């Protein structure tokens, strides 16, 4: 008996030691991982990818593709930019770039980097603050409630326009958005999605199946899972806003057979723009085409692409076809109706074999490029970060883990060998640094859609911002050229000027095929929801001569590096003013 007891005691001692050892090993592994992540963040400011380090070269730069005449006249000794890609080093930091701006840059990177708790916080915050931010139960809904209806995403009836707001959606907000675009019905689903249209859904559902509370209105119902709460929108009063939403697109040569090209038409004596636009809006078409007394409704297509405009004089006297070059031309207007042929998006059904980055310096148009790619391919894009504002506007890939491979590509502003080599290929979006710096400064002080105030521009923050971020613009491109495995270089200015050809390049690079009509739909919705609005900054030159000299040297460096890798150099307009 004593012998058995001794063996049991010996076994328990061994087990206790083993448990202690495993616990210690677990804690050590966790500590090492934490130290490694901290080291990666701190290292951003000390290696060649930092936005705060100076990029220097010896005097006498030769073979530069873009030449700034000012540099030929300026004989004052000063630093020159580094041209050779393999010669990237870690020169001493300029005192004005360090250490305060180094700490600031690292702080921004830490704020940008994705953290797992972002998802938890963003999911919990609406519940925690509901009592304070939510609207009262007694919120007034102007429209007439029509009932709960089934919602089939493949055959959606309310498809005239689509809006998302995963934090502040209310019944009134959805109704007003649909009324402004001249729709008859507004439908809400999932507590945060708004759909507009002129026809009621065919299949009614049980009232209790619409059970999702509106994200921005406590106590109100905004549809459910695959269910729509549908309201008939109240007619807008006199002075209605819908007229202001009709946009003149231009004078164009009419297609040979108008009836075959456009699915709906109306012949009306004394036809006006308002009459034609309202007719096409009711039919849920984004284009209203006028020729004489005839009104046609449709979409941009291969037969009528709106690419070759004509002189408006050729469309003069539209109500008299004899004076309209024998009816060869027509006036085109954009109605308030959204072109929905390219608005359907989803996650990849199988994991992508190729991990693609959509890389850019902040302020270079990454969000706009994502909008174009998502609508062209029909698949969501992901992000290395989490931006709640973008997620709330329909970029659902924001909340998906960036390495899930369920998105067509992943947004990143990162640079550095480790961060770049994680990707198999990349679309590198480059924008004029003058424009990029101003766009990022606007975003920093006024969000994605606003403008910084004159006070911001004239404060000491602006010169400090330029000194810090200008070198980051250059080092970002240089690092991707050095470490990127397979690159497609897209200049923001070229994409803006020649949208469809450049978008085709991007889609082909992503190994996708799309129809011409879908690309034309993207072009018709090219701005998305992220075109800046509001009062722009006043007319003054924000860049001092010292700032220009600094940025110009970085422009020459990047241009030389691109040409050295057999890419097209920077557009001529990058050369300073």
Automatic annotation (TrEMBL):
* Any one Pfam family match given in the protein's UniProt record, by short name: WSC
Entry protein name: WSC domain-containing protein 1
- What InterPro entries does UniProt report for this protein, alphabetically? P-loop_NTPase, Sialate-O-sulfotransferase, Sulfotransferase_dom, WSC_carb-bd
Native source organism of the sequence: Spheniscus mendiculus (Galapagos penguin)
Superkingdom classification of source: Eukaryota
Task: State the family named in the UniProt similarity comment for this chain.
Answer: Belongs to the WSCD family.
Keyword list (alphabetical) reads: Repeat
Q: Where is the WSC domain?
A: 142-234, 245-342
A GO molecular function for this record? sulfotransferase activity
């Amino acid at each position: 008996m004593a012998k058995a007891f001794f063996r049991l005691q010996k076994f328990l001692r061994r087990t206790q030691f083993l448990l202690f050892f495993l616990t210690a090993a677990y804690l050590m592994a966790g500590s090492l991982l934490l130290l490694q992540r901290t080291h990666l963040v701190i290292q951003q400011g000390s290696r060649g990818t930092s936005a705060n380090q100076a990029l220097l070269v010896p005097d006498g730069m030769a073979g530069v593709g873009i030449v700034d005449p000012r540099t030929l006249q300026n004989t004052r000794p000063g630093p020159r930019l580094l041209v050779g890609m393999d010669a990237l080093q870690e020169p001493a930091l300029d005192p004005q770039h360090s250490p305060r701006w180094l700490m600031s840059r690292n702080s921004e990177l830490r704020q940008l980097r994705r953290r797992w708790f972002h998802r938890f916080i963003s999911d919990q915050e609406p519940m925690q603050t509901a009592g304070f931010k939510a609207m009262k139960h007694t919120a007034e809904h102007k429209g007439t409630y029509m009932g709960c209806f089934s919602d089939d995403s493949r055959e959606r009836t309310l498809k005239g326009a689509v809006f998302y707001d995963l934090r502040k959606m209310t019944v009134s907000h959805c109704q007003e958005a649909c009324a402004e675009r001249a729709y008859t019905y507004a439908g809400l689903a999932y507590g945060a999605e708004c759909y507009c249209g002129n026809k009621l859904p065919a299949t009614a559902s049980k009232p209790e199946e619409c059970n999702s509370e509106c994200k921005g209105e406590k106590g109100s119902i905004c549809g459910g899972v695959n269910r729509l709460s549908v309201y008939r929108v109240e007619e807008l009063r006199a002075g209605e806003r819908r007229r202001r939403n009709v946009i003149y697109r231009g004078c164009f040569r009419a297609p040979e057979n108008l009836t075959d090209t456009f699915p709906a038409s109306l012949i009306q004596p004394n036809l006006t723009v308002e009459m034609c636009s309202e007719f096409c809006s009711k039919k849920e078409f984004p284009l209203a085409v006028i020729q004489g007394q005839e009104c046609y409704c449709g979409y941009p297509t291969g037969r009528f692409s709106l690419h070759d405009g004509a002189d408006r004089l050729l469309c003069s006297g539209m109500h008299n076809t004899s004076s309209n070059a024998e009816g060869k031309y027509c006036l085109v207007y954009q109605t308030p109706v959204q072109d929905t042929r390219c608005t359907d998006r989803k996650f990849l059904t199988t994991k992508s074999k190729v991990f693609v980055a959509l890389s850019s310096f902040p302020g270079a148009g990454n969000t706009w490029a994502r909008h174009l790619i998502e609508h062209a391919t029909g698949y969501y894009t992901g992000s290395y970060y989490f931006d709640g504002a973008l997620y709330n506007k329909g970029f659902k890939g924001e909340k998906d883990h960036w390495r899930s491979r369920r998105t067509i590509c992943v947004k990143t502003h990162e640079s550095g060998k480790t961060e770049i080599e994680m990707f198999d290929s990349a679309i590198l979006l480059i924008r004029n640094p003058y424009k990029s710096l101003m766009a990022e400064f606007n975003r920093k002080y006024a969000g994605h859609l606003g403008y910084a105030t004159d006070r911001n521009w004239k404060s000491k923050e602006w010169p400090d911002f330029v000194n810090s971020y200008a070198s980051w613009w250059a080092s970002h491109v240089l690092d991707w050229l050095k470490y990127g495995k397979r690159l497609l270089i897209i200049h923001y200015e070229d994409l803006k000027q020649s949208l469809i050809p450049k978008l085709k390049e991007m889609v082909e690079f992503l190994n996708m095929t799309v129809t011409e009509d879908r690309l034309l739909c993207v072009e018709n919705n090219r701005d998305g929801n992220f075109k800046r609005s509001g009062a722009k900054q006043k007319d003054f030159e924000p860049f001092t001569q010292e700032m220009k000299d600094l940025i110009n040297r970085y422009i020459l460096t990047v241009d030389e590096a691109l040409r050295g890798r057999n890419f097209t150099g920077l557009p001529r307009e990058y050369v300073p003013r």
